[in-house]
Amino acid sequence: MNQLNHNQRDLGQNGREQWATKIGFMLAAMGSAVGLGNIWRFSYVAGENGGAAFLLIYIAMIIMIGVPIMMAEFSIGRKAQSDAVGSFQNLSPGKPWVAAGFLGVASAFIILSFYGVVAGWTLKYFTGYLTGTLWSEPSGGYVDYFVGFIGSPLEPLIWQFIFMGATIGIVLLGIKKGIEKANVILMPTLAILLIILGIYSLTLGGASEGLAFLFSPDWSILSEPSIYLAALGQAFFSLSLGMGALITYGSYLSKKERLPGATAGIASMDTIFAIIAGVVIFPAVFAFGAEPDSGAGLVFFTLPAIFDEMALGGIVGLAFFFLLAAAGLSSAISLLEVAVAYFIRKFGWTRKKTALIIGGLIFLLGVPSSLSNGPFSEFILFDRVFMDNMEFLSDIFLPLGGLIIALFVGWGWKKTEALQASDFGNSTIGAVWLFILKFIAPVAIFLVFLFALGVL
Ligand code: TRP
Fold first, then answer.
1. Most CB atoms within 10 A, among 248, 265, 293, 355?
2. Which of 8, 7, 31 is nearest to 329 (CA)?
C-alpha cells in the first residue's frame, strides 16, 4: 500500500511521470543543453571560425531560429504528453510528421553511441588529474598521450562503459528521483565551477588577447558563407534541438507552467555557459602561445599542456575535466531518455528494464566508434572511420528532424491550437513565432542540411 501511494505521488493525473518543480524542469533542460557541445565543441568551432564574429552570428541564430524551435518542441511535448514518437501520433494521427519522432529515436542511438565515447575520454582525463598522472607532461608529450590512449583497444571502452553505466543508473531511477535530482545537483555545481575557472583564466597574461579574440569582431569574416552555417549547426547541437529531447522533457511538464519564459531562460543559460567556456579557454590558449584553431584536440591536448605550465594547473585541470564529464553526463541522460521513454510505451517494459536494455545496446553501438580510433582505424567507409560516420549521420538527422518539427508547427498544426499550446495566445510575438517556423527556420535549416551533405 505504501509503495502504491508512493508511486502514485510520482505520476501526474494522466498516469505519466512528472517533474517535481518548475525549477527542476528548467535545470534538467539546461542540463540537456549544456554539455560537451558548449565547452569542447563551441570552443573549437568558434576558434576555427574567427571567434567574435562567429559568436555574434551564433547568438543571432539562437534568438532567431533556436529559440522558436525550442518553443516548438516544448509545446508539442507538453500538449501531447507523450514521447518523441507518440507526441506526433497524438497531435496528428495518421500523418507523416511522426517521421520526426522515429528520426529522433534513431538519432538518440547514434549521438549517444559516440557521445559516450568522448565523455569516457573526459572521465579518463578527470581521473588522470585526480591521481596526478597528468600533473606533469607524460613522456612523449600530451599529443602522444591522447592519441595512444584513444587508440588502445580496451581502455577507452572501459571508460565508455563506466560513463554509460552512470547514465543508465540515473535514467532508470526515473524523472524525479533520477533525472531531476541529478540535474539539481549538477547544474549549480557546474555554474560555480565554470565561473571560478573563468575568473582564474582572466588573471592570466593572455586575457586581453583572448578576450579580444572572443569579443572584438573581425567583420571581414562575415563575408564567408560557411560561418553562418557553422553557427546554425552549433546552435542546434548546443540547444539539444531536432531529435525530440525537448519534446520528451516537455511531456513531463504540467499544463500550469508558462513555456515562453522557461524557454528564454534555458536558451540564455546555454549561451552564457558557452561564452564563459570561451572566457575560460581563449585567454589560456593565448597566454601559452597555443593556436585557437587547433581543432577538436583543443580540449584534450592543448589545454593539458597549458595547465602544465600554470601555477596550480593540476587543480585547474581536475576542475576542468570534472566540469566536462559532469556536463556530458547531464546531456547524455537526455539523449538516453528519448529512446527509453519511447520503448517504455512501445513495449510496456518497466523503466529499469528499458534503461538497461536500451542503454546496453547504445553502449554496444559505441564500441566500433571507440575502436575506430585504434584497431578499426583501417576500416574506412565513405572516406571516414566509423566514429566520424556516426557524427556525420547526426549532422544530417538533427537538421532534418528540426526541419520537420518547424514545418509541423508552422503548417501541420492548427494555428489556434499551436498558439494555445505555446502559451503565446493571440499575441504579436505568437504570430512572429509562427512566421519564423513557417518560413525562416525551414529555409535556414535547409541550408545547413546542404552544408552537412557537402553540397555547399
Ligand atoms: N546539447 C548537448 C551538448 O551541448 C548535446 C545533446 C544532448 C543533444 N541532447 C541532445 C544534441 C539532443 C542534440 C539533440 O553537448
1. 248
2. 31
